[in-house]
Amino acid sequence: MACAQGHEFNFADGTCCSTLNSLLTKLRSTDEKTIAPYIKRGDISKWIGDALSKKTLASQLSKAKDKKEIINLLKNHIDGKKGNIMKDKYKDDLLAPGHRTCAGCGASIAARQILKALGKNVVICNATGCLEVTTSQYPLTSWKVPWIHVTFENAASVASGVREALDAQGKEDVTVVAIGGDGGMLDIGFRAFSGALERNHNILMICYDNEAYMNTGVQRSGSTPWLASTTTTPAGIASKGKEQWKKDVPTIAAAHHIPYVATASIGYPQDLEKKIKKALSIKGAKYLHIHSPCPVGWNFDSMKTIEIAKDAVESKMWALFEIEDGVKTLSRTPKGTPVSKYMKAQKRFKHLTDIDIAEYQKRVDDLFKKEFDI
Ligand SMILES: Cc1ncc(C[n+]2csc(CCOP(=O)(O)OP(=O)(O)O)c2C)c(N)n1
Ligand code: SF4
Ligand SMILES: [Mg+2]
Fold first, then answer.
1. Residue 29: is its pLDDT beyond 60?
2. Residue of 173, 98, 161 whose CA lies nearest to 125
3. Who contacts 362 (Cβ-Cβ below 8 Å, separation ≥6)?
4. In degrees, to the nearest 5, what angle opens at C-alpha 59 toward C-alphas 69 and 25?
5. Do the beta carbons of residue 209 and residue 107 sit within 8 Å?
6. Of the residues 101, 105, 128, 134, which should be mutated to test ligand 1's pocket, given the most ligand atoms within 8 Å of the CB?
7. Protein residue whose Cα sits closest to atom 8 of ligand 2
8. Contact yes or no for 203/160 (Cβ under 8 A)
9. Of the residues 134, 205, 213, 221, which should be mutated to test ligand 1's pocket, given the most ligand atoms within 8 Å of the CB?
10. Contact 297 CB / ligand 2 (< 6 Å)
11. What value does the mean pLDDT of the chain take?
12. How would you classify residue 54: left for phi > 0, otherwise alpha for psi between -120 and 50, otherwise beta?
């Protein structure tokens, strides 16, 4: 059974790490006066609520004398020996579990895969967006590498500055990464992104593309696919969803004459890892565009994130390719799964008729044929 982060339940009483971490944060910021009466009455578990009405921990908590003891109990429970994921299964991950992404979030899966490939010798400059907001809630952080939150629109500029500062200190070996969502990197941050590409700054720029502005409530972006329903392109009597085709940013990035551009998918982690490692071996500006499904914004069952990511690739809705010195090469030949399989699993496309989907299929096939001759 998976917890909200997709982790296996790891405590004897079924409580998951993220629930406990959230409670710990809440408790730390709650003053003693508020919870003292509950402690006195011995019903702290009521205050904590259903999540902790689990036997073992709740009975220990109900005997706690003060807030400090409760915090310690929770902390020990999280750090305890009962198959704790921090200490065994996920101990080598550079993105610690317990963050606040939604269940099945593609962005957090992307971040784990990216960090695995990058290693520790890195500085990450993270634009505002879901990934940043959910992994860095004060006073906690999931990032086990140097990481800086920068504003929504300037991750690439900050990364350029970090690069310059490190180079001035003779630290050319440190990798500098600018990462953000499609809104942050490809729309509002496009000027900074394009500038860094054009200067051929020695940084790796990564977009985790969940195809809308998710953190602020699923507004459409330039990367939202044609006919998808979002809160600013709602499907209804007057509209069939977003009117424009998805912006082709990898091609735009390559038009800056940079040495390496690639696309990847969280459904194909080995391919993603290989591409990051290749990017690290190249000096100059590199761009990696990662397709990262979002169960909340795309409205699908959170158990299906990886399946949906794979279906996007196999149905030609998302192509895996590299552009090296201007030459585009397909990394994976799609199986030709019908786009209807991919689309029907997501409620953002649920308004489409079979005729609409057939038209979609034709457009996707034509585009793929034109680009890759397949
Ligand atoms: C200049 C500015 N405008 C708007 C916002 C509000 N804002 C924060 S996150 C966000 C959406 C981010 O979208 P995206 O970059 O695609 O990342 P996602 O949340 O989808 O992961 C917006 C509009 C902001 N922080 N700064
Ligand atoms: S809204 Fe989507 S991208 Fe944001 S944390 Fe939730 S699943 Fe992840
Ligand atoms: Mg987004």
1. yes
2. 161
3. none
4. 45
5. no
6. 128
7. 105
8. yes
9. 213
10. yes
11. 88
12. beta
How far is residue 167's CA from residue 286's CA, in Å, rounded to a whole number? 17
Nearest CA to ligand 1 atom 4: 152
Which atom of ligand 1 has the smallest separation from the CA of 215? 19
Q: What percent of the chain has pLDDT over 90?
A: 72
Atom of ligand 2 nearest to the CA of 181: 3
Q: What distance in Å separates the CA atoms of residue 93 and residue 111, rounded to the nearest whole number?
A: 10
How far is it, in rounded angstroms, from Cα 35 to Cα 45? Answer: 11
Q: What is the C-alpha to C-alpha distance for residues 196 and 212, in angstroms, rounded to an integer?
A: 23
User: Looking at ligand 1, which residue's alpha carbon is closest to its atom 2?
Assistant: 152
Task: Tell me the CA–centroid distance for residue 180 and ligand 1, in Å.
Answer: 9
Residues with CB under 6 A from ligand 1: 107, 128-131, 152-153, 180-184, 210, 213-216, 221
Minimal-distance CA residue to ligand 1 atom 25: 152
Residue of minimum CA distance from atom 11 in ligand 1: 213
Which region among 20-34, 35-49, 168-182, 235-249 has the lowest average model confidence (pLDDT)?
35-49
Q: What backbone torsions phi and psi does residue 205 show, to the nearest 5 degrees?
A: -105, 130
- Among 137-141, 235-239, 242-246, the minimum mean pLDDT is found in 137-141
Q: Taken in order 341, 342, 345, 348, is the CA torsion positive or negative?
A: negative
Count of H helices and E strands in the chain?
14, 8
Task: Retrieve residue 42's tokens.
Answer: 């011995």
CATH topology for 106-294+320-328 is Rossmann fold (3.40.50)
**pTM here?**
0.82
In single-letter form, the type of residue at position 70 comes to: I
Whether pLDDT at 88 is above 80: no
> What is the separation, in whole angstroms, between the first and last Cα of the chain?
40
- Rounded to a whole number of angstroms, the CA Rg of the chain reads 23
Q: Where in the chain is the domain with CATH 3.40.50.970?
A: 106-294+320-328
Q: Are 346 and 360 in contact (CB under 8 A)?
A: no
